Amino acid sequence: MSQSSSQINKYLKSLQKHLTDEHPDNPTLANAVKSFRKMDYVGHSMGLLGKDESYATFVTWWPMIAVLGTFSAGKSTFINSYLELPLQRTGNQAVDDKFTVICYSRHNEAKTLPGIALDADPRFPFFQISRSIEEISEAGQERIDAYLQLKTCPSETLRGKILIDSPGFDADNQRASTLRLTQHIINLSDLVLVFFDARHPEPKAMQDTLAYLVSASVNRADANKFLYILNQIDVTAQEDNPEEVVSAWQRSLAEVGLISGRFYRIYNPSAAVPITNPHIRQRFEKKREEDMADINARVRQIEVERSYRIVGKLEQTAKSIKNHFVVKLSDMLSKWKSKVILFDGLAFSSLAVLAGTALHLTDSWSLLPAFQENLQQHDTTSVVIAALIVITILYTHFSIRRAVANGLLKKLAAELGNDQDTYKQYMQAFNKSTAAIRPMFLSGPAGWNETTQQTIDEVINEANDYIQALNDQFTNPSGNGGENSQV
To answer: Is the dihedral of CA 234, 239, 242, 245 positive or negative?
Structure first.
Protein backbone atom coordinates (compact mmCIF):
# COMPACT_ATOMS: atom_id res chain seq x y z
CA MET A 1 0.00 0.00 0.00
CA SER A 2 1.41 3.41 -1.01
CA GLN A 3 1.84 6.18 1.54
CA SER A 4 -0.96 8.25 -0.04
CA SER A 5 -3.45 5.37 -0.06
CA SER A 6 -2.43 4.59 3.52
CA GLN A 7 -3.29 8.18 4.50
CA ILE A 8 -6.72 7.89 2.88
CA ASN A 9 -7.34 4.60 4.67
CA LYS A 10 -6.30 6.20 7.97
CA TYR A 11 -8.64 9.12 7.34
CA LEU A 12 -11.62 6.84 6.60
CA LYS A 13 -11.02 4.85 9.78
CA SER A 14 -10.79 8.06 11.81
CA LEU A 15 -13.92 9.44 10.18
CA GLN A 16 -15.90 6.28 10.85
CA LYS A 17 -14.82 6.27 14.49
CA HIS A 18 -15.73 9.94 14.91
CA LEU A 19 -19.21 9.43 13.46
CA THR A 20 -19.75 6.36 15.62
CA ASP A 21 -18.74 8.28 18.76
CA GLU A 22 -20.78 11.33 17.71
CA HIS A 23 -24.01 9.37 17.23
CA PRO A 24 -23.70 5.95 18.94
CA ASP A 25 -27.45 5.36 18.60
CA ASN A 26 -27.54 6.38 14.94
CA PRO A 27 -25.07 4.37 12.84
CA THR A 28 -26.35 5.67 9.50
CA LEU A 29 -23.46 8.00 8.65
CA ALA A 30 -20.82 5.65 10.08
CA ASN A 31 -22.22 2.89 7.87
CA ALA A 32 -22.20 5.29 4.91
CA VAL A 33 -18.40 5.45 5.23
CA LYS A 34 -18.30 1.70 4.54
CA SER A 35 -20.40 2.24 1.42
CA PHE A 36 -18.02 4.98 0.26
CA ARG A 37 -15.19 2.45 0.66
CA LYS A 38 -17.03 0.05 -1.64
CA MET A 39 -17.49 2.80 -4.21
CA ASP A 40 -13.80 3.68 -3.94
CA TYR A 41 -13.00 0.09 -4.97
CA VAL A 42 -14.99 0.61 -8.17
CA GLY A 43 -13.44 4.02 -8.78
CA HIS A 44 -9.91 2.68 -8.35
CA SER A 45 -10.64 -0.35 -10.55
CA MET A 46 -11.94 1.82 -13.39
CA GLY A 47 -9.34 4.54 -13.00
CA LEU A 48 -11.94 7.18 -12.07
CA LEU A 49 -10.02 7.74 -8.83
CA GLY A 50 -6.33 7.87 -8.14
CA LYS A 51 -4.94 5.63 -5.42
CA ASP A 52 -4.66 8.66 -3.14
CA GLU A 53 -8.31 9.65 -3.63
CA SER A 54 -11.63 8.67 -2.08
CA TYR A 55 -15.19 9.61 -2.90
CA ALA A 56 -15.61 10.24 0.83
CA THR A 57 -13.40 13.33 0.49
CA PHE A 58 -15.72 14.76 -2.20
CA VAL A 59 -18.20 15.70 0.53
CA THR A 60 -17.81 17.51 3.81
CA TRP A 61 -18.97 15.40 6.75
CA TRP A 62 -19.61 18.41 8.97
CA PRO A 63 -22.66 20.69 8.57
CA MET A 64 -21.48 23.60 6.44
CA ILE A 65 -22.83 27.12 5.93
CA ALA A 66 -21.49 29.31 3.11
CA VAL A 67 -21.80 33.10 3.23
CA LEU A 68 -21.52 34.74 -0.20
CA GLY A 69 -22.25 38.20 -1.49
CA THR A 70 -21.00 41.54 -2.70
CA PHE A 71 -18.18 43.23 -0.80
CA SER A 72 -20.42 45.83 0.91
CA ALA A 73 -23.29 43.53 1.84
CA GLY A 74 -22.45 43.20 5.54
CA LYS A 75 -21.41 39.54 5.52
CA SER A 76 -18.70 40.01 8.15
CA THR A 77 -21.01 42.00 10.42
CA PHE A 78 -23.61 39.22 10.21
CA ILE A 79 -21.00 36.55 10.96
CA ASN A 80 -19.69 38.46 13.99
CA SER A 81 -23.23 38.86 15.27
CA TYR A 82 -23.94 35.16 14.75
CA LEU A 83 -20.73 34.13 16.54
CA GLU A 84 -21.15 36.83 19.21
CA LEU A 85 -17.46 37.57 18.65
CA PRO A 86 -15.68 40.29 16.60
CA LEU A 87 -13.87 37.69 14.50
CA GLN A 88 -14.13 39.15 10.99
CA ARG A 89 -13.01 42.60 9.96
CA THR A 90 -15.80 44.87 8.76
CA GLY A 91 -15.97 47.87 6.43
CA ASN A 92 -17.66 49.40 3.39
CA GLN A 93 -14.77 48.37 1.17
CA ALA A 94 -13.33 44.91 0.56
CA VAL A 95 -11.36 44.09 3.72
CA ASP A 96 -10.46 40.46 3.02
CA ASP A 97 -9.62 38.82 -0.29
CA LYS A 98 -9.47 35.24 1.02
CA PHE A 99 -11.97 32.50 1.66
CA THR A 100 -12.12 32.06 5.42
CA VAL A 101 -13.12 28.72 6.90
CA ILE A 102 -14.33 29.28 10.47
CA CYS A 103 -14.65 26.42 12.93
CA TYR A 104 -15.02 25.90 16.67
CA SER A 105 -12.05 25.69 19.01
CA ARG A 106 -12.01 24.88 22.71
CA HIS A 107 -9.28 27.48 23.22
CA ASN A 108 -10.40 30.86 24.50
CA GLU A 109 -8.38 32.78 21.93
CA ALA A 110 -9.29 33.02 18.24
CA LYS A 111 -6.50 31.95 15.90
CA THR A 112 -5.81 32.42 12.19
CA LEU A 113 -4.03 29.58 10.40
CA PRO A 114 -2.68 29.49 6.82
CA GLY A 115 -4.42 27.83 3.89
CA ILE A 116 -2.15 24.79 3.98
CA ALA A 117 -3.92 23.79 7.22
CA LEU A 118 -7.06 23.23 5.10
CA ASP A 119 -5.36 21.66 2.09
CA ALA A 120 -3.68 18.93 4.13
CA ASP A 121 -6.58 18.02 6.45
CA PRO A 122 -9.30 15.75 4.94
CA ARG A 123 -11.79 16.79 7.62
CA PHE A 124 -12.24 20.16 5.93
CA PRO A 125 -13.98 20.98 2.62
CA PHE A 126 -10.76 22.21 0.96
CA PHE A 127 -8.80 18.97 1.29
CA GLN A 128 -6.21 18.86 -1.55
CA ILE A 129 -7.75 21.96 -3.14
CA SER A 130 -4.19 23.02 -4.04
CA ARG A 131 -4.43 20.64 -7.00
CA SER A 132 -7.19 22.78 -8.50
CA ILE A 133 -5.38 25.99 -7.62
CA GLU A 134 -2.24 24.65 -9.28
CA GLU A 135 -4.15 24.21 -12.55
CA ILE A 136 -5.20 27.87 -12.68
CA SER A 137 -2.42 29.67 -10.83
CA GLU A 138 1.06 30.12 -12.23
CA ALA A 139 2.54 29.93 -8.75
CA GLY A 140 0.71 26.66 -8.05
CA GLN A 141 0.52 25.36 -4.49
CA GLU A 142 2.71 28.19 -3.22
CA ARG A 143 -0.29 30.44 -3.79
CA ILE A 144 -2.76 28.51 -1.63
CA ASP A 145 -2.29 30.89 1.30
CA ALA A 146 -3.36 33.73 -0.99
CA TYR A 147 -6.77 32.11 -1.44
CA LEU A 148 -7.58 30.37 1.83
CA GLN A 149 -7.25 30.75 5.58
CA LEU A 150 -8.61 28.92 8.63
CA LYS A 151 -9.92 30.75 11.66
CA THR A 152 -10.82 29.09 14.95
CA CYS A 153 -12.94 30.63 17.67
CA PRO A 154 -14.60 29.55 20.94
CA SER A 155 -18.16 30.48 19.91
CA GLU A 156 -20.58 27.83 21.14
CA THR A 157 -23.02 28.63 18.31
CA LEU A 158 -20.40 27.27 15.91
CA ARG A 159 -19.79 23.98 17.70
CA GLY A 160 -20.29 21.08 15.28
CA LYS A 161 -20.53 23.35 12.20
CA ILE A 162 -18.25 24.89 9.60
CA LEU A 163 -18.83 28.45 8.42
CA ILE A 164 -17.22 29.79 5.24
CA ASP A 165 -16.93 33.51 4.54
CA SER A 166 -16.18 34.40 0.92
CA PRO A 167 -14.24 37.45 -0.25
CA GLY A 168 -16.47 40.22 -1.57
CA PHE A 169 -17.44 39.77 -5.19
CA ASP A 170 -16.32 42.28 -7.77
CA ALA A 171 -17.57 40.54 -10.89
CA ASP A 172 -15.75 42.81 -13.33
CA ASN A 173 -12.42 41.70 -11.90
CA GLN A 174 -12.91 38.06 -10.88
CA ARG A 175 -10.08 35.61 -10.88
CA ALA A 176 -10.88 32.17 -12.27
CA SER A 177 -9.61 30.63 -9.05
CA THR A 178 -12.13 32.58 -6.94
CA LEU A 179 -15.02 31.43 -9.13
CA ARG A 180 -13.88 27.82 -9.00
CA LEU A 181 -13.53 27.85 -5.23
CA THR A 182 -16.93 29.49 -4.93
CA GLN A 183 -18.52 26.73 -7.00
CA HIS A 184 -16.72 24.16 -4.87
CA ILE A 185 -18.18 25.74 -1.73
CA ILE A 186 -21.71 25.92 -3.16
CA ASN A 187 -21.66 22.24 -4.09
CA LEU A 188 -20.56 21.13 -0.62
CA SER A 189 -22.65 23.46 1.54
CA ASP A 190 -25.83 22.53 3.37
CA LEU A 191 -26.93 26.16 3.45
CA VAL A 192 -25.86 29.09 1.24
CA LEU A 193 -26.57 32.62 2.47
CA VAL A 194 -26.33 35.09 -0.42
CA PHE A 195 -26.09 38.68 0.84
CA PHE A 196 -26.98 41.85 -1.05
CA ASP A 197 -26.66 45.46 0.07
CA ALA A 198 -29.93 47.38 0.43
CA ARG A 199 -27.93 50.62 0.35
CA HIS A 200 -27.46 50.17 -3.41
CA PRO A 201 -30.97 50.63 -4.77
CA GLU A 202 -29.99 49.98 -8.41
CA PRO A 203 -29.13 46.29 -8.60
CA LYS A 204 -28.64 46.51 -12.39
CA ALA A 205 -25.23 48.01 -11.61
CA MET A 206 -24.32 44.60 -10.17
CA GLN A 207 -25.84 42.52 -12.96
CA ASP A 208 -22.70 40.42 -13.55
CA THR A 209 -22.41 39.62 -9.86
CA LEU A 210 -26.08 38.70 -9.71
CA ALA A 211 -25.77 36.52 -12.78
CA TYR A 212 -23.00 34.48 -11.18
CA LEU A 213 -24.30 34.24 -7.63
CA VAL A 214 -27.91 33.59 -8.60
CA SER A 215 -27.53 31.50 -11.75
CA ALA A 216 -25.60 28.98 -9.66
CA SER A 217 -28.84 28.13 -7.87
CA VAL A 218 -31.27 28.12 -10.79
CA ASN A 219 -32.51 24.65 -11.82
CA ARG A 220 -30.48 22.94 -9.10
CA ALA A 221 -32.05 20.00 -7.31
CA ASP A 222 -30.93 21.58 -4.01
CA ALA A 223 -31.96 25.14 -4.88
CA ASN A 224 -33.87 25.42 -1.59
CA LYS A 225 -30.57 25.63 0.30
CA PHE A 226 -30.03 29.16 -1.08
CA LEU A 227 -31.30 32.02 1.09
CA TYR A 228 -31.23 35.52 -0.47
CA ILE A 229 -30.70 38.15 2.21
CA LEU A 230 -31.18 41.87 1.64
CA ASN A 231 -29.02 43.24 4.41
CA GLN A 232 -28.90 46.72 5.95
CA ILE A 233 -32.55 47.28 5.06
CA ASP A 234 -32.66 49.96 7.80
CA VAL A 235 -31.41 52.49 5.22
CA THR A 236 -34.88 52.43 3.64
CA ALA A 237 -36.54 53.59 6.84
CA GLN A 238 -36.23 57.29 6.05
CA GLU A 239 -38.25 56.96 2.83
CA ASP A 240 -40.20 54.06 4.32
CA ASN A 241 -40.01 52.14 1.03
CA PRO A 242 -38.58 48.66 1.82
CA GLU A 243 -41.15 46.99 -0.44
CA GLU A 244 -39.98 49.06 -3.43
CA VAL A 245 -36.34 48.16 -2.76
CA VAL A 246 -37.19 44.47 -2.42
CA SER A 247 -39.24 44.58 -5.65
CA ALA A 248 -36.29 46.14 -7.50
CA TRP A 249 -34.00 43.35 -6.37
CA GLN A 250 -36.58 40.69 -7.20
CA ARG A 251 -36.95 42.05 -10.73
CA SER A 252 -33.19 41.97 -11.14
CA LEU A 253 -33.05 38.38 -9.93
CA ALA A 254 -35.81 37.43 -12.35
CA GLU A 255 -33.70 38.77 -15.21
CA VAL A 256 -31.00 36.21 -14.40
CA GLY A 257 -33.45 33.35 -14.13
CA LEU A 258 -34.62 33.27 -10.52
CA ILE A 259 -38.40 33.58 -10.48
CA SER A 260 -39.14 31.94 -7.14
CA GLY A 261 -38.00 32.36 -3.55
CA ARG A 262 -38.04 35.37 -1.26
CA PHE A 263 -35.76 38.01 0.18
CA TYR A 264 -35.00 38.03 3.89
CA ARG A 265 -34.86 41.63 5.14
CA ILE A 266 -32.44 42.12 8.01
CA TYR A 267 -30.07 44.64 9.58
CA ASN A 268 -27.73 44.81 12.56
CA PRO A 269 -29.36 46.86 15.34
CA SER A 270 -26.00 47.93 16.76
CA ALA A 271 -24.92 49.39 13.42
CA ALA A 272 -28.33 50.53 12.18
CA VAL A 273 -29.37 53.98 11.04
CA PRO A 274 -31.46 55.56 13.85
CA ILE A 275 -35.18 55.26 13.07
CA THR A 276 -36.91 58.17 14.78
CA ASN A 277 -40.49 57.33 13.86
CA PRO A 278 -41.60 54.78 16.50
CA HIS A 279 -44.23 53.15 14.24
CA ILE A 280 -41.74 52.65 11.40
CA ARG A 281 -39.09 51.42 13.87
CA GLN A 282 -41.52 48.90 15.35
CA ARG A 283 -42.51 47.62 11.91
CA PHE A 284 -38.86 47.28 10.78
CA GLU A 285 -37.86 45.54 14.00
CA LYS A 286 -40.76 43.11 13.77
CA LYS A 287 -39.90 42.18 10.17
CA ARG A 288 -36.24 41.79 11.05
CA GLU A 289 -37.03 39.53 14.01
CA GLU A 290 -39.32 37.36 11.86
CA ASP A 291 -36.77 36.95 9.09
CA MET A 292 -33.88 36.35 11.50
CA ALA A 293 -35.98 33.68 13.22
CA ASP A 294 -36.50 31.97 9.85
CA ILE A 295 -32.78 32.16 9.04
CA ASN A 296 -31.81 30.77 12.45
CA ALA A 297 -34.35 27.96 12.05
CA ARG A 298 -32.73 26.97 8.75
CA VAL A 299 -29.30 27.05 10.39
CA ARG A 300 -30.49 24.71 13.14
CA GLN A 301 -31.95 22.41 10.48
CA ILE A 302 -28.65 21.80 8.68
CA GLU A 303 -27.67 18.96 11.02
CA VAL A 304 -30.56 16.97 9.56
CA GLU A 305 -29.87 18.21 6.04
CA ARG A 306 -26.21 17.19 6.44
CA SER A 307 -27.23 13.54 6.87
CA TYR A 308 -29.50 13.55 3.84
CA ARG A 309 -26.88 15.41 1.78
CA ILE A 310 -24.16 12.85 2.45
CA VAL A 311 -26.41 9.86 1.77
CA GLY A 312 -27.78 11.61 -1.29
CA LYS A 313 -24.25 12.21 -2.56
CA LEU A 314 -23.47 8.51 -2.04
CA GLU A 315 -26.46 7.45 -4.13
CA GLN A 316 -25.90 10.16 -6.73
CA THR A 317 -22.25 9.21 -7.23
CA ALA A 318 -23.03 5.49 -7.51
CA LYS A 319 -25.77 6.10 -10.07
CA SER A 320 -23.54 8.53 -11.94
CA ILE A 321 -20.85 5.86 -12.30
CA LYS A 322 -23.36 3.31 -13.58
CA ASN A 323 -25.58 5.50 -15.74
CA HIS A 324 -23.23 8.23 -16.93
CA PHE A 325 -19.55 7.38 -16.63
CA VAL A 326 -19.87 3.80 -17.89
CA VAL A 327 -22.22 4.80 -20.72
CA LYS A 328 -20.07 7.75 -21.82
CA LEU A 329 -16.83 5.77 -21.56
CA SER A 330 -18.35 2.88 -23.54
CA ASP A 331 -19.45 5.32 -26.26
CA MET A 332 -16.01 6.94 -26.36
CA LEU A 333 -14.32 3.52 -26.54
CA SER A 334 -16.57 2.49 -29.43
CA LYS A 335 -15.68 5.66 -31.33
CA TRP A 336 -12.02 5.20 -30.43
CA LYS A 337 -11.91 1.63 -31.80
CA SER A 338 -13.68 2.61 -35.02
CA LYS A 339 -11.33 5.51 -35.65
CA VAL A 340 -8.22 3.49 -34.78
CA ILE A 341 -9.26 0.75 -37.21
CA LEU A 342 -9.97 3.38 -39.89
CA PHE A 343 -6.68 5.20 -39.45
CA ASP A 344 -4.75 1.92 -39.14
CA GLY A 345 -6.24 0.88 -42.45
CA LEU A 346 -5.34 4.17 -44.10
CA ALA A 347 -1.84 4.22 -42.63
CA PHE A 348 -0.92 0.63 -43.42
CA SER A 349 -2.51 0.81 -46.89
CA SER A 350 -0.41 3.88 -47.59
CA LEU A 351 2.70 2.15 -46.28
CA ALA A 352 1.94 -0.92 -48.38
CA VAL A 353 1.46 1.22 -51.47
CA LEU A 354 4.71 3.07 -50.81
CA ALA A 355 6.59 -0.17 -50.21
CA GLY A 356 5.14 -1.74 -53.37
CA THR A 357 5.99 1.34 -55.41
CA ALA A 358 9.55 1.32 -54.07
CA LEU A 359 9.99 -2.37 -54.89
CA HIS A 360 8.56 -1.81 -58.35
CA LEU A 361 10.75 1.18 -59.12
CA THR A 362 13.87 -0.59 -57.90
CA ASP A 363 12.82 -3.86 -59.51
CA SER A 364 13.35 -5.61 -56.14
CA TRP A 365 10.39 -8.00 -56.15
CA SER A 366 12.74 -10.85 -57.00
CA LEU A 367 14.57 -10.29 -53.71
CA LEU A 368 11.58 -11.19 -51.56
CA PRO A 369 11.93 -15.01 -51.84
CA ALA A 370 15.60 -14.72 -50.89
CA PHE A 371 14.74 -12.44 -47.96
CA GLN A 372 12.12 -14.92 -46.72
CA GLU A 373 14.60 -17.80 -46.99
CA ASN A 374 17.28 -15.84 -45.12
CA LEU A 375 14.76 -14.95 -42.43
CA GLN A 376 13.88 -18.60 -41.94
CA GLN A 377 17.58 -19.35 -41.60
CA HIS A 378 17.86 -16.58 -38.95
CA ASP A 379 20.15 -14.44 -41.00
CA THR A 380 21.11 -11.50 -38.80
CA THR A 381 20.51 -8.79 -41.40
CA SER A 382 17.15 -10.23 -42.39
CA VAL A 383 16.06 -10.56 -38.75
CA VAL A 384 17.03 -6.95 -38.05
CA ILE A 385 15.11 -5.73 -41.11
CA ALA A 386 12.05 -7.77 -40.11
CA ALA A 387 12.26 -6.44 -36.56
CA LEU A 388 12.43 -2.85 -37.82
CA ILE A 389 9.34 -3.49 -39.96
CA VAL A 390 7.44 -4.91 -36.96
CA ILE A 391 8.56 -2.02 -34.73
CA THR A 392 7.43 0.50 -37.37
CA ILE A 393 4.02 -1.19 -37.60
CA LEU A 394 3.60 -1.28 -33.82
CA TYR A 395 4.82 2.29 -33.38
CA THR A 396 2.40 3.50 -36.05
CA HIS A 397 -0.50 1.57 -34.51
CA PHE A 398 0.08 2.74 -30.94
CA SER A 399 0.74 6.30 -32.07
CA ILE A 400 -2.63 6.24 -33.81
CA ARG A 401 -4.27 4.80 -30.68
CA ARG A 402 -2.88 7.58 -28.52
CA ALA A 403 -3.59 10.36 -31.02
CA VAL A 404 -7.22 9.26 -31.44
CA ALA A 405 -7.65 8.98 -27.66
CA ASN A 406 -6.22 12.47 -27.12
CA GLY A 407 -8.54 13.85 -29.78
CA LEU A 408 -11.59 12.38 -28.07
CA LEU A 409 -10.43 13.72 -24.69
CA LYS A 410 -9.98 17.18 -26.17
CA LYS A 411 -13.53 17.07 -27.49
CA LEU A 412 -14.77 15.87 -24.09
CA ALA A 413 -13.00 18.77 -22.35
CA ALA A 414 -14.86 21.21 -24.61
CA GLU A 415 -18.18 19.47 -23.79
CA LEU A 416 -17.65 19.61 -20.02
CA GLY A 417 -16.40 23.20 -19.99
CA ASN A 418 -15.27 24.25 -16.51
CA ASP A 419 -16.23 20.98 -14.82
CA GLN A 420 -12.61 20.00 -14.28
CA ASP A 421 -13.32 17.41 -11.57
CA THR A 422 -15.62 15.38 -13.84
CA TYR A 423 -13.22 15.70 -16.77
CA LYS A 424 -10.36 14.46 -14.62
CA GLN A 425 -12.29 11.29 -13.76
CA TYR A 426 -13.18 10.66 -17.39
CA MET A 427 -9.61 11.32 -18.51
CA GLN A 428 -8.08 8.92 -15.97
CA ALA A 429 -10.60 6.17 -16.75
CA PHE A 430 -10.36 6.60 -20.54
CA ASN A 431 -6.56 6.59 -20.47
CA LYS A 432 -6.68 3.35 -18.47
CA SER A 433 -9.14 1.82 -20.96
CA THR A 434 -6.98 2.83 -23.94
CA ALA A 435 -3.61 1.99 -22.42
CA ALA A 436 -1.14 0.21 -24.70
CA ILE A 437 -1.19 -2.92 -22.53
CA ARG A 438 -4.98 -3.27 -22.85
CA PRO A 439 -6.18 -5.17 -25.97
CA MET A 440 -8.61 -3.33 -28.23
CA PHE A 441 -11.03 -6.26 -28.48
CA LEU A 442 -12.16 -5.83 -24.85
CA SER A 443 -15.60 -4.24 -25.03
CA GLY A 444 -16.33 -2.36 -21.79
CA PRO A 445 -14.34 0.26 -19.88
CA ALA A 446 -11.39 -0.98 -17.85
CA GLY A 447 -12.45 -2.24 -14.42
CA TRP A 448 -16.16 -2.40 -15.25
CA ASN A 449 -17.17 -6.03 -14.86
CA GLU A 450 -19.71 -8.20 -13.10
CA THR A 451 -18.05 -7.68 -9.71
CA THR A 452 -17.85 -3.88 -9.88
CA GLN A 453 -21.37 -3.62 -11.30
CA GLN A 454 -22.67 -5.73 -8.44
CA THR A 455 -20.76 -3.51 -5.99
CA ILE A 456 -22.36 -0.36 -7.38
CA ASP A 457 -25.82 -1.94 -7.17
CA GLU A 458 -25.11 -2.81 -3.53
CA VAL A 459 -24.12 0.79 -2.78
CA ILE A 460 -27.32 2.11 -4.40
CA ASN A 461 -29.43 -0.31 -2.35
CA GLU A 462 -27.56 0.64 0.83
CA ALA A 463 -28.12 4.33 0.12
CA ASN A 464 -31.86 3.68 -0.16
CA ASP A 465 -31.74 1.85 3.19
CA TYR A 466 -29.93 4.81 4.76
CA ILE A 467 -32.60 7.22 3.49
CA GLN A 468 -35.30 5.02 4.98
CA ALA A 469 -33.40 4.88 8.28
CA LEU A 470 -33.18 8.69 8.33
CA ASN A 471 -36.86 9.00 7.50
CA ASP A 472 -37.70 6.69 10.39
CA GLN A 473 -35.96 9.12 12.76
CA PHE A 474 -37.90 12.18 11.62
CA THR A 475 -41.22 10.81 10.40
CA ASN A 476 -43.80 8.41 11.69
CA PRO A 477 -46.61 8.12 9.13
CA SER A 478 -48.31 5.25 11.00
CA GLY A 479 -48.33 7.14 14.29
CA ASN A 480 -47.07 4.09 16.14
CA GLY A 481 -44.24 3.93 18.65
CA GLY A 482 -42.58 6.61 20.66
CA GLU A 483 -41.11 9.95 19.76
CA ASN A 484 -38.72 10.22 16.86
CA SER A 485 -35.08 10.47 17.76
CA GLN A 486 -32.85 13.10 16.22
CA VAL A 487 -29.61 12.73 14.34
So the answer is: negative
Amino acid of residue 7: Q
pLDDT tens by residue, 406-460: 999 999 999 988 778 889 999 999 999 999 899 988 888 999 999 999 999 999 9
Higher pLDDT, 262 or 390: 390
Of 56, 58, 64, residue with least CA distance to 13: 56
Give CB contacts under 8 A, 24+ apart, made by 331-339: 332/408, 332/412, 332/430, 333/430, 333/433, 333/434, 333/443, 333/444, 333/445, 335/408, 336/401, 336/404, 336/405, 336/408, 336/434, 337/440, 339/404, 339/407
Q: What are phi and psi of 119, to 5 degrees?
A: -65, -30
CA distances from 223 to 162, 255, 311, 380, 453 (A): 20, 17, 18, 73, 31
Q: Which residues pair with 264 in a beta bridge?
A: 229
Q: Give me the DSSP letters along 71-107.
A: TTS-HHHHHHHHHTS--S---SS----SEEEEEE-SS
Residue among 195, 158, 189 at smallest CA distance from 77: 195
Contacting residues for 119 by C-beta, under 8 A, at least 6 apart:
126, 127, 128, 129, 130, 141, 144, 148
Give the C-alpha separation, 209 to 169, whole Å: 7
Cα distances (angstroms) measured from residue 60 to each of 121, 187, 276, 341, 342: 12, 10, 46, 45, 47
- Residue 226 has phi, psi (to 5 degrees) of -90, 125
Could you report the per-residue pLDDT of 75-106, keeping only the tens digit for each? 888 888 888 888 877 655 445 667 888 988 88
> CA quadruple 461, 462, 465, 467: dihedral positive or negative?
negative
pTM of the model as a whole: 0.69
For 70, which DSSP code? B
Distance (Å, rounded) from C-alpha 199 to C-alpha 30?
47
Q: How far is CA 98 from the centre of its chain?
A: 19
* Cα distance between residue 317 and residue 58, in whole Å: 10
Instruction: Check residue 206 and give its pLDDT.
Output: 55
Task: Find the Cα–Cα–Cα–Cα dihedral 458, 459, 460, 464, rounded to 10°.
Answer: 100
Buried b / exposed e along 251-288 (16+ C-beta atoms within 10 A): ebbeebebeeeebbbbbbeeebeebeeeeeeeebeebb
